[in-house]
Design a protein that fits this description.
The complex is a heterodimer of chains A (113) and B (815). With 113 residues, chain A is mainly β. The two termini of chain A are 17 Å apart. Chain A is built from one helix and ten strands. Chain B is globular and about 95 Å long. The chains are: A mainly beta (113), B alpha/beta (815). β2 of chain A pairs parallel with β41 of chain B.
């Protein structure tokens, strides 16, 4: 991970329904932010490694999400496709300050630059 | 580049060859199939159970349309190839299609032999070869008249038993002194005749057909001795011959069949022949096991793997329920041959082994056939039986001292003993698959190995292998669990939800000991539906357990945009609705507008954040959600009925609108599509819908259980009613019964097949009281379901769904 990580506030954990997701629009594309049943929060690109399906629209279960297009199951922790499928979605560094969600976007900007 | 593989014929042999080929090398060939029959590949050896009514055609399909689509295979149905041009390497069909090939497989099977007696081409003379023949027999059988079957071999007997089962009076005319003389010795033939006659079938042995009589269609059969047997249909089942005509015309070497070498290659190196049309080392085969062996060899040859076919020894089983008969090898008497015979007249058992030099060369088992596989295995291997000669005839359980239980007998079989004769699957392959792939059920074994997936007569053996391999872990009655989160099946979960009055998803998971913390994408939507349908008004719908389309009330598309379909009751619309739609298409720059198959308008490519505004405009013009995304009532398609049509018998449009207004908003296990046709011309195509109504002068015929997707199936008739009110009550009761019994994602036709039409009719047609109760329960649940989801969201429900959580600029992101 980046040595000089900077963090951007994107909202509160209460903005996201449990076992659900919301999107953050950035110039580098959509980021999906997930909240699990036990209030863990994860962020990753809103794209399934299979056919770029919007993962934010999928069903969240445990620490995985099932893509709405073809039912690939993606780990929220690693971005890796589960089961027999092979592929990986880029995860985004995230931290919680109380209820406030912060994303580590500097890595992304450097990727884009 | 992919090579072009063209296959002529779509029977069981090429079907199996393709399975092997696709498994070994899925991308080697671009495959095109020409099938003279207008249908997919089905299990021809199961035609007899179809004829006797024990199975339906759907149950014997091997590869449905979906299989061909999935594997990118082009299948021309009802297309007969009329010529092969070997210089240009093309084939031409009778419909004018020309296809080029790099490799060509001829698999045209065989044609039934027709005895050329006078009258053989008269209407009512049938053969027994394909589904068309079976359908023709089943139609003829409805008249319950007389049937004559010419030929007392395997096919003739199965046809006779099937027709007798369908209620016809059947006579078998067989030229030889005993039945199935090629497979059975006279003693077994006699026992078989007795068993056949007990089914009310007359058997005339040594009878020679002289002529088929009749003016315009069949009336009787005249025998050489002058006897006349009355007949409404005549089935010729005297034998088959290889269908080698196409190969012969193309100049390939042919004798009885198209001559092939050990790699299935004809005299042209790029042309292969497979199955019954081929002749290998002077032999032609008509049983499935050798054809499947050939299919395996050809698949290897086509992928460049070395393989050689050495011919087959065949075994036969008669597929007539209640008659157990097995025969294998050669059992003619001879100087150098000995035999061992066991007869038990009281229990109807006859067993005969023919030995030559201490080896089994032939076996006939009648009445008790469980040792067939064991004898056949020793026969094929040429095993020396001198050590067990005294007890050999009693079967495998009597070898090695004291009698063993049947499980031990199966356990003692060697790994290469053949279990499934149809598919050539040996014991080791089955037990290996059970262990390595973690199989736990008969269906699993069928899916992974094909064993027991054809005629099913080895099912008992396969179940014993499951028992031996898995020990106590094998539970033959085990139901398929809903998903990996639970060991309960759908029906158990539903029953327990009601019995224990469980009313939330977390409670279901707690009380039924779910293995995961919050389920998965398979079980959560199912549980949500079961709770919605069981506890209307009490259960609060869990949006996070709904598939995205039902959560946002629109259909997700491949690019993440949505499609929107407003409801148009019964398919009727108006200038003001169309004007409003036109305006909002412009306003939101919606890229595509399309008519759907259910008489609605589909607006495609709407951005998610625009959805509430689009719905607001539609609501303002008086339109509500068309539920085109729902596992619920979708559309009621109608024709114009008595309003406009000169043939209309009832107000079909009005009834369609009435049904749709009554039933919209209801959730069901899977989508429900309906249609109402104003007359039997059926312009609204009601007979392939989940529920269809055909209006007639005297009232309404109610149909159900149709399908027109990956499966194609005509509806079944539920009942006839006289009035519109009664039609509505029956349809509503039917839907409610389906809501209460259907497994999540199980369409009506599958539910119908599972529970049976009689049980459905008993609930919604015969028992008025039950029907009324079902109707009441539906009406009660509608109180909570008939809320327009679009209007709710326009007024602010779930607004987080349609807005991003944050919009970041480059500067913020780079901060």
């Amino acid at each position: 991970m980046n040595a000089h990580m900077s963090w951007t506030v994107i909202g509160s954990i209460t903005d996201i329904p449990r076992r659900g997701a919301r999107c953050v629009n950035t110039p580098m594309g959509k980021i999906a932010v997930f909240r699990t049943a036990d209030d863990q929060v994860f962020a990753m690109d809103d794209q399934c490694p299979h056919k770029k399906g919007p993962l934010s629209q999928g069903i969240v279960h445990g620490t995985s999400v099932t893509c709405p297009l073809h039912n690939w199951v993606i780990s929220l922790e690693t971005g890796e496709a589960q089961g027999q499928d092979v592929g990986k979605t880029r995860t985004i560094p995230l931290k919680l300050d109380g209820e406030v969600i912060l994303l580590g976007l500097s890595a992304l900007v450097e990727d884009a630059a | 580049m992919k090579q072009k593989l063209v296959i002529i014929g779509n029977g069981m042999a090429p079907g199996r060859m393709l399975e092997n080929l696709l498994e070994a090398s899925p991308d080697a060939y671009e495959v095109t199939i020409f099938n003279a029959e207008p249908r997919v590949n089905y299990d021809r050896i199961m035609l007899s159970p179809v004829l006797s009514g024990e199975k339906s055609f759907e149950e014997i399909v091997i590869h449905g349309d979906g299989w061909y689509i999935q594997h990118g295979i082009t299948l021309y149905k009802g297309c007969k190839i009329k010529s092969i041009n070997r210089d240009a390497k093309t084939v031409t069909s009778d419909t004018g299609i020309v296809a080029g090939y790099d490799k060509l497989v001829i698999a045209t099977g065989s044609v039934p032999f027709i005895i050329p007696v006078p009258g053989h081409d008269m209407a009512g003379v049938l053969t027994y070869r394909d589904l068309d023949d079976v359908n023709a027999m089943m139609i003829a059988a409805k008249s319950r008249g007389n049937a004559v079957v010419i030929g007392g071999g395997l096919l003739g007997l199965e046809a006779a038993a099937g027709l007798a089962e369908q209620g016809m009076k059947v006579t078998i005319i067989h030229i030889m002194p005993t039945l199935m003389e090629r497979q059975l010795d006279p003693a077994a033939g006699h026992l078989l005749k007795k068993a056949v006659e007990e089914r009310g079938i007359t058997v005339l042995n040594g009878a020679n057909t002289k002529a088929i009589l009749g003016a315009r269609r069949v009336e009787g059969v005249e025998l050489a001795d002058g006897t006349i047997v009355p007949a409404d249909i005549v089935i010729m089942a005297v034998g088959i011959r290889p269908n080698a005509a196409l190969g012969k015309e193309a100049g390939l070497q042919t004798n009885r069949g198209i001559v092939i070498d050990d790699q299935m290659r004809t005299s042209d190196p790029d042309i292969f022949a497979l199955g019954e049309c081929g002749e290998h080392r002077g032999m032609v085969y008509g049983l499935v096991a050798p054809l499947y062996e050939m299919a395996g060899i050809l698949a290897k040859t086509l992928t460049g793997e070395a393989a050689a076919y050495a011919g087959s020894v065949t075994a036969t089983k008669l597929k007539v329920t209640g008659i157990n008969l097995f025969s294998a090898g050669d059992f003619a008497e001879g100087e150098d041959r000995e035999e061992i015979v066991l007869r038990d007249a009281s229990s109807g058992v006859y067993k005969r082994l023919v030995l030559k030099g201490n080896k089994i060369v032939g076996a006939v088992l009648y009445g008790e056939t469980s040792d067939g596989a064991w004898f056949f295995d020793m026969l094929k291997k040429g095993a020396d039986i001198s050590d067990m000669r005294d007890t050999l005839i009693f079967g495998q359980s009597y070898q090695g001292g004291s009698p063993l239980d049947p499980m031990a007998a199966v356990a003692a079989l060697p790994d290469d003993a053949e279990i499934c004769g149809c598919n050539g699957i040996c014991k080791g392959k089955i037990t290996g698959a059970i262990t390595s792939k973690g199989l736990t059920s008969l269906d699993d074994v069928r899916a992974h190995t094909k064993a027991s997936a054809s005629c099913g007569s080895c099912t008992g053996l396969v179940e014993q292998l499951l028992g031996i391999t898995l020990g106590d872990a094998y539970n033959p009655a085990a139901v398929q669990p809903m998903c990996g989160c639970t060991h309960f099946g759908h029906d158990d979960v539903r029953r327990l939800i009601v019995a224990q009055e469980i009313k939330t998803i977390p409670d279901v998971m707690q009380q039924l000991e779910w293995k995961t913390s919050c389920g998965c994408a398979k079980c959560r939507p199912a549980l949500n539906y079961y709770l919605v349908s069981n506890w209307p008004g009490e259960y609060v719908d869990d949006g996070q357990s709904r598939f995205i389309n039902e959560r946002v009330h629109a259909n997700i598309q491949k690019d993440g945009t949505y499609s929107v379909v407003p409801r148009m009751w019964g398919g009727m619309t108006s200038s003001s609705e169309l004007r409003a739609i036109a305006d909002l298409v412009d306003k939101f720059a919606i890229p595509a507008v399309k008519c759907t198959g259910g008489q609605r308008i589909d607006l495609l490519g709407v951005k998610k954040e625009d959805l509430p505004a689009v719905w607001a405009d539609l609501n303002n013009a008086g339109m509500v959600s068309g539920a085109a995304y729902a596992k619920g009532l979708r559309t009621v398609k109608t024709c114009v009925g008595t309003d406009w049509c000169r043939f209309g018998t009832q107000d079909s449009t009005g009834l369609g609108i009435r049904i749709e207004k009554f039933m919209w908003g209801s959730w069901t296990p899977a989508k429900v599509k309906m249609a109402v046709s104003g007359c039997p011309r059926n312009c609204s195509e009601a007979t392939c819908k989940d529920v269809g109504i055909i209006c007639v002068d005297s009232g309404f015929d109610i149909h159900f259980g149709g399908a027109a997707g990956l499966d194609i199936k005509g509806t079944e008739v539920l009942c006839h009613v006289d009035t519109e009110d009664e039609a509505l009550e029956v349809i509503v009761a039917l839907t409610q019964l389906y809501r209460e019994q259907g497994r999540y994602l199980e369409r009506i036709y599958k539910w119908m097949k599972r529970v049976g039409i009689p049980s459905i009719q008993a609930n919604v047609v015969a028992d008025r009281e039950k029907r009324a109760k079902l109707f009441e329960r539906f009406v009660f649940s509608q109180k909570f379901a008939q809320v327009d989801p679009w209007a709710e969201r326009v007024s602010g429900v779930d607004k987080h769904e349609f807005k991003p959580m944050a919009e970041l600029s480059f500067a913020e992101a780079a901060e």
